[in-house]
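Tokens in:
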């Protein structure tokens, strides 16, 4: 395997053919390679005609002042062309006939675990309850057209997982658990633009990610792995506290190890594990709404200009966080120029998420606005939800946070007229405790219905959101506005359950050969962190099967 070296550790003398510079330029100067050549030649006293190529290694936007700057780390080639690819390729050999390991779930954790297994000479058998990434599009369209949710193929289930039809964000705050750069290189190897290696907040986009997922699946099959769609795991096969395979709706599959990467919405998996006496624990998550602004408004606010972003800047992002009564209130999964989508995974529930295409050129920008919820919070009197259709669970049950999640999603569905029309409220009306007479236009395709979110959402959540919005409005003038729409509810921020595993072996604490993995197991929160955890679990499974 090639090893990429980081030239940030080097400084080349001017008489060599390659230089590296950190530069601070205005957006129009960073617009393309030719304008960068002109700037570098002028500022560094070089002959522009000798600069053959400029590669951007790192890129970020500084929008703190009225004049916007791009901070760039660039590699400049003089009188020679780059000899190295912009990304590192990995080699994947053929694993037909080799030791099998089952991977349940074809989301980021499952797919990256699968690639790592192949890289280490192990034959993966991937089991995915949903359909392939292209076929999923038909099921997603039906949600908006007919308000019917396919429980096996939707925005949460299917090849690519919940991240396949999302913004495709590829950044994470977690830096300690594995190689983030390695994950980005694999995405590039399978079709992503190498610009994701440079951007401070890289993203692929919902229009580009499906093709990359297909390329990864084709790679798995070419190397001798298996991918079985529309195959739902129903039970783990366990003998003497050791996993020996799985039972699916299509029959049994035997293997000495199982990587369980079923995602944060597989409630049936949690129930099955709990019924089987397999150790779980309640986990904190976050609950709130999708907040949608006109993208032009966010551009004007963030770029401090009445003209918005102009020709050379991308759709503006924002990030807010504060504390209200001991709980975090913050923006989550911000989608500039994106759309709000229905993300239910079963009948009788309503929840929303955000996504955006690679160009981020839509009329609206949205973000989750959520309140931190700890496991003990669901027992608070202000968290009570009157929901007769979803039976409560014991207060000490590891499924108690999930139960609260289900109740809130069901109430939201009821408030949406028992369809996928989402209850919504103008932002200022929510803060004032008023029903909205009408609603702004929205990207949410199934439609909106005016509803008093402040009244029926748990007081524990709504009161903190109200005060949080007031603070955000003071931080950023114009953010708290009647032109912004709150769309309910955002509940799938992370898993409400943790499948408990050993910190060293990554195996379940009581079941040998079972490797709980990714977001669904409670050990990741996003595409990149899930991918990294998938690779870690694959390496742990390799070590385990080598010793079985």
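Residues out:
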């Amino acid at each position: 395997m090639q090893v990429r070296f980081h030239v940030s550790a080097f400084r080349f003398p001017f008489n060599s053919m390659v230089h590296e510079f950190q530069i601070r330029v205005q957006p129009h100067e960073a617009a393309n390679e030719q304008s960068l050549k002109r700037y570098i030649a002028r500022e560094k006293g070089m002959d522009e005609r000798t600069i053959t190529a400029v590669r951007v290694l790192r890129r970020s936007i500084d929008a703190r002042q009225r004049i916007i700057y791009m901070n760039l780390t660039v590699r400049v080639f003089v009188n020679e062309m780059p000899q190295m690819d912009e990304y590192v390729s990995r080699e994947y050999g053929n694993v037909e006939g080799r030791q099998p390991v089952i991977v349940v779930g074809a989301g980021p954790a499952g797919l990256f675990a699968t690639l790592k297994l192949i890289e280490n000479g192990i034959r993966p058998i991937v089991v995915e309850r949903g359909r392939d990434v292209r076929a999923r599009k038909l099921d997603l369209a039906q949600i908006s057209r007919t308000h019917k949710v396919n429980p096996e193929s939707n925005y949460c289930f299917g090849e690519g997982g919940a991240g396949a039809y999302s913004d495709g964000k590829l950044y994470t705050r977690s830096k300690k658990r594995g190689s983030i750069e390695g994950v980005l290189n694999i995405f590039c190897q399978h079709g992503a633009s190498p610009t994701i290696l440079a951007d401070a907040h890289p993203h692929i986009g919902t229009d580009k990610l499906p093709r990359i997922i297909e390329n990864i699946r084709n790679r798995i099959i070419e190397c001798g792995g298996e991918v079985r769609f529309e195959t739902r795991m129903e039970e783990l096969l366990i003998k003497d506290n050791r996993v020996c395979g799985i039972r699916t709706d299509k029959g049994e599959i035997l293997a000495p190890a199982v990587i369980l990467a079923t995602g944060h919405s597989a409630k049936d998996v949690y129930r099955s594990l709990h019924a089987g006496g397999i150790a779980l624990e309640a986990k904190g998550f976050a609950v709130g709404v999708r907040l949608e602004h006109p993208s032009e408004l966010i551009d004007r606010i963030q770029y401090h200009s009445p003209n918005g972003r102009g020709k050379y800047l991308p759709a503006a992002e924002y990030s807010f966080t504060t504390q209200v009564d001991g709980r975090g209130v913050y923006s989550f999964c911000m989608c500039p120029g994106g759309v709000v989508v229905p993300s239910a995974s079963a009948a009788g529930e309503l929840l929303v998420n955000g996504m955006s295409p690679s160009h981020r050129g839509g009329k609206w920008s949205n973000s989750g606005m959520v309140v931190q919820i700890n496991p003990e919070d669901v027992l608070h009197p202000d968290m009570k939800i009157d929901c007769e259709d979803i039976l409560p669970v014991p207060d000490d049950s590891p499924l108690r946070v999930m139960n609260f999640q289900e109740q809130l999603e069901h109430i939201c569905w009821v408030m949406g007229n028992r369809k996928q029309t989402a209850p919504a409220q103008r932002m200022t009306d929510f803060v004032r405790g008023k029903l909205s007479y009408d609603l702004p236009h929205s990207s949410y395709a199934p439609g909106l219905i005016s509803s008093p979110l402040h009244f029926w959402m748990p007081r524990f959540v709504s009161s903190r959101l109200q005060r949080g919005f007031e603070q955000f409005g003071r931080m950023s003038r114009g953010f708290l506005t009647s032109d912004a729409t709150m769309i309910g509810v955002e509940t799938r921020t992370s898993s409400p359950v943790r499948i408990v595993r050993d910190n060293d072996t990554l195996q379940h604490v009581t079941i040998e050969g079972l490797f709980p993995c990714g977001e669904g197991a409670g050990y990741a929160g996003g595409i990149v962190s899930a991918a990294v955890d998938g690779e870690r679990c694959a390496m742990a499974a390799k070590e385990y099967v080598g010793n079985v």
